[in-house]
Each structure stands twice: as C-alpha cells, then as structure tokens.
Amino acid sequence: MNRFSAFTLAEVLLTLSIIGVVAAMTIPTLIAKQQNDTYVAGMKKIYSVLSAATDKVKDDCGGDYSALFAPTDATQGNVALEAFAPHLNITKNCGAGTGCLPDKLYYLYGGEYEWESDDDGRFGKAILSDGMIVEIISDDSSCTGGISDFCAQIIVDVNGHRGPNTFGRDIYEFDLYKTKLVPCGFDESAATVNVNCSEDGSGHDCAARILREGAMNY
C-alpha cells in the first residue's frame, strides 16, 4: 500500500498566518522606501534641469542675471520666472496668480502653510510637463543691493498636487546666487543640515542632505 504524507489543515493555516504577519510588517516599509526613492529621483532630476536653465538664463543676460531680481519687480519673482520659462518645459504658467500651487504645504515637524492663498499675487509659479511645480521667490534686497550675492529661493514640488506636499519629502528648496544654483543648506555643516532635515525641523535643507548622503535617511 502506498502512503503519502501531507500537511494538515492546521499546519497550512499556521503557515499562511505567518506569511500574512511577515507581509503586513514588510510591505508598508517597502512601499514607503519605493516612494521615497521616487521623491529623491525627482529632486535630482529637477536640480539638473534648473541648473541647466540657470546657465542658459545667465547667457541670455550676458553673464549677469541680477537685474531679474530688482526691486522694480513688484511680484518678487515673476520677472525671473519669465526669463526661465523658455528653458523649462512649462505646460501652465500661473505667473503671480493662482492655479498652480496646492492649497497647503507642510513642514517635517508638522506645521503647515497656506501655500496657494498666501502666495497669491506674488512670486512666479508654473507647472512643468512632468507635473512638477516650480515657484521662484526673489530676494531683491541682496541680489542687487550689494549685501550678498543671494538672488532667490526656488521651491519645487516634485510630484505636483499629489501629497504629501511636505518639505523634505516631495518639496525641496534650492537657492539661486549670482553665479550658481545650489540646494538650500549647501554651505551649512552636516550637523546643522541634519537638524533641519529631521522630524523636528522644517525640511528646507533636505535636498542638501540627500545629495550628500545619496538617500533619504531620515
């Protein structure tokens, strides 16, 4: 007589239960890592795009684009955006008006800012063909005033209106100087950047931390 061994129903159910527990523990982590990797890739992409655009704007302006950030720009950024526009693949140019920004943005520590309404009537905003949102905020007192060579902040939401709309996740800040575009926090110590780019910080310096460490380690 041939005899065949097999798992009992109890053993099968126990195995499935273990698999379910392991999946419940690991799948959310894997999904979060994949999403974070997507944010990082988006940040690196837009940094490259904006750096190339900065070089082209500089050429357009004969090597000095500081006039784009003069106090005569009542919008504090839209003049610069119009200069950058030919070098960015823009599908919607909101100028200083509404229609491009999410309602709110958030900081890593949990605070929030009424992005769309508070920035209405100022700065320069646009949506690119890949869905990224770019906002240029001019600092007219330093780029043309001789105090320093800092010209503007450029805020980018790498996945547009989709959440979480949070600095250090899908929103990053780059700083524009007379000669270069750099991630916010590039000239700060690693310790200072890490404090800012943490669950207790604002997240403004996270692009600098990611580029230094190569990943979203926070």
**Order of strands in the sheet with most strands:** 1-4-5-6-7-8
What's the number of domains?
A: 1
Number of helices: 6
Beta-sheet strand percentage? 15-25%
- What is the CA–CA distance across the termini? 63 Å
Q: Average pLDDT value?
A: 91
Q: Using DSSP, what is the number of strands?
A: 8
C-alpha geometry: elongated
The class by helix and strand makeup works out as alpha+beta
Low-confidence stretches: none
The arrangement of helices and strands along the chain is: HHEEEHEEHEEEHH
Largest sheet: 6 strands, antiparallel
Helix content: 25-40%
Radius of gyration: 23 Å
Task: Kindly describe this structure.
This protein is of the alpha+beta class and 218 residues long. It has one domain (9-213). It is 38% helix and 18% strand. The strands form two sheets. Strands 1-4-5-6-7-8 form a six-stranded antiparallel beta sheet. It has a two-stranded antiparallel sheet with strand order 2-3.
Could you write a compact summary of the structure shown?
This protein has 218 residues and is α+β, with helices and mostly antiparallel strands. The chain is built from six helices and eight strands.
Question: What is the topological layout?
Answer:
Layout: H1 9-60, H2 78-84, E1 90-95, E2 105-106, E3 112-113, H3 115-118, E4 124-128, E5 133-138, H4 140-143, E6 150-157, E7 171-177, E8 181-183, H5 190-196, H6 206-213
Antiparallel strand pairs: 1-4, 2-3, 4-5, 5-6, 6-7, 7-8
Features:
elongated, alpha+beta, 218 residues, six-stranded antiparallel β-sheet, single chain, two-stranded antiparallel ribbon, 18% strand
